[in-house]
Design goal:
By secondary structure, the protein is of the alpha+beta class. It has 6 helices and 15 strands. Helix 5 links the parallel strand 14 and strand 15.
C-alpha cells in the first residue's frame, strides 16, 4: 500500500491541510501552554512534544500568548508543531509523506530546503489532547507556493496566479503547462503587513509589480484566504480579467497534494 500523503500549507495566518479523506485548517498560532483552569472546546489543541507543552490554533489565541512568526525562514519550531498537528489530525498512526511549500523567492535556497527537511523528516513522538502517538515522516517534498495551485486545476494557454498571503504575495505564470520563472516571484507585502490591510492599497502594490511582465488582458486567478476582497480592486486598477478562485484558501494545499501524488506515481 502507498504511504499516506499529507499536504500541509503552513502559512503565517493559517495552516491548511489536505489528506486522502478531505481538508481542514487551523490558525497558525503556537503558544507555550499556560497552567490553570480553562474551558475545553472542541477544536482545542494541547500538544506535548519533546518534553514541552504547547497550545496550538484557537486555544493558543484564546488562552495563550502566541508569538507571530514574521521571519522569512520557515525553519522554526512553530512550523514543526503545525506539521505534526496536521499529521496527527490526519490520523497517521505509523508513517507518512509530507508535501509542503516554500515561497517562490525561497524555493531555490538550499539552506532553507535542507533545513526544512531536517526539521520535519524522521520519527516524532507527540501527544495531542492526551492521545500519544509515534509516527515517522519518511519524506518531505517541497512545492512552490502559489505556482503549485496550478496543478489542482491545470489549464492550457497563459495562466497567471496571484496569492496574497499574510506576509508575502506570490505570483506565478504558466504557459501551456510550463512554469515561467521570469514572470513569477514574491512581493514582500501581505494582508497583515500592509497598513490597514486595505484591498485597494494591496491591489495597487501588486499591480505595479506584476504589471512589469503581465498584460492587463491576461486572466488573473487570485488565491489565498482573502482572494475575493482583491477581485474588484484589481479589476479597477487595470487587470479587468482578475477573478477569485473557487476555494481560494485551500488552493495551495490542493496543489501541494497533486504535486505529491504525481511524485508517487512518477
Ligand atoms: N476564512 C477567512 N475569512 C476571511 N479572511 C480570512 C480567512 N482566512 C484567512 N483570511 C485572511 O486572509 C489572509 C490570507 O490568509 P492565508 O491563509 O491565505 O494566508 P497564509 O497562507 O497563512 O499567509 P502566507 O502565505 O503569507 O504565509 C489572512 O491574513 C487573513 O486575514
Ligand atoms: Mg499562503
Amino acid at each position: 500500500m502507498d504511504i499516506p500523503l499529507i499536504a500541509v500549507d503552513a502559512g503565517r495566518h493559517g495552516t491548511k491541510v489536505k489528506n486522502a479523506r478531505g481538508m481542514f485548517c487551523f490558525p497558525s498560532s503556537v503558544s507555550k501552554a499556560i497552567e490553570g483552569h480553562r474551558e475545553h472546546l472542541e477544536n482545542d489543541l494541547e500538544v506535548r512534544y519533546n518534553g514541552k507543552d504547547y497550545f496550538v490554533g484557537e486555544l493558543a489565541q484564546r488562552e495563550g500568548y502566541p508569538q507571530r512568526l514574521m521571519t522569512e525562514s520557515k525553519v522554526h519550531d512553530q512550523t514543526l508543531l503545525e506539521v505534526l498537528v496536521a499529521v496527527f489530525r490526519s490520523e497517521v498512526m505509523d508513517r507518512c509523506r509530507v508535501m509542503t511549500g516554500l515561497p517562490i523567492n525561497l524555493y531555490t535556497d538550499e539552506r532553507e530546503r535542507a533545513g526544512l527537511k531536517r526539521l520535519l523528516e524522521g520519527e516524532h513522538e507527540v501527544t495531542v489532547n492526551g492521545v500519544h502517538r509515534r509516527f515517522t515522516i519518511e519524506k518531505v517534498g517541497l512545492a512552490l507556493e502559489c505556482a503549485s495551485s496550478y496543478f489542482a486545476a491545470p489549464e492550457s494557454g497563459t495562466v497567471r496566479i496571484v496569492d496574497p498571503g499574510a506576509r508575502t504575495t506570490n505570483y506565478a505564470t504558466f504557459k501551456d503547462g510550463i512554469y515561467i520563472g521570469k514572470e513569477s516571484g514574491t512581493i514582500p507585502l501581505g494582508w497583515d503587513s500592509v497598513r490597514g490591510a486595505d484591498p485597494d492599497l494591496m491591489a495597487g502594490q501588486i499591480a505595479s509589480e506584476i504589471g512589469k511582465s503581465w498584460s492587463p488582458s491576461n486572466r488573473v486567478k487570485i488565491i489565498g484566504g482573502k482572494a475575493e476582497e482583491l477581485e474588484e480592486p484589481l479589476k479597477r486598477i487595470g487587470f479587468g480579467f482578475a477573478y477569485a478562485a473557487e476555494r481560494p484558501l485551500y488552493a495551495n494545499v490542493e496543489g501541494f497534494y497533486e504535486v505529491g501524488r504525481s511524485l508517487t506515481h512518477a
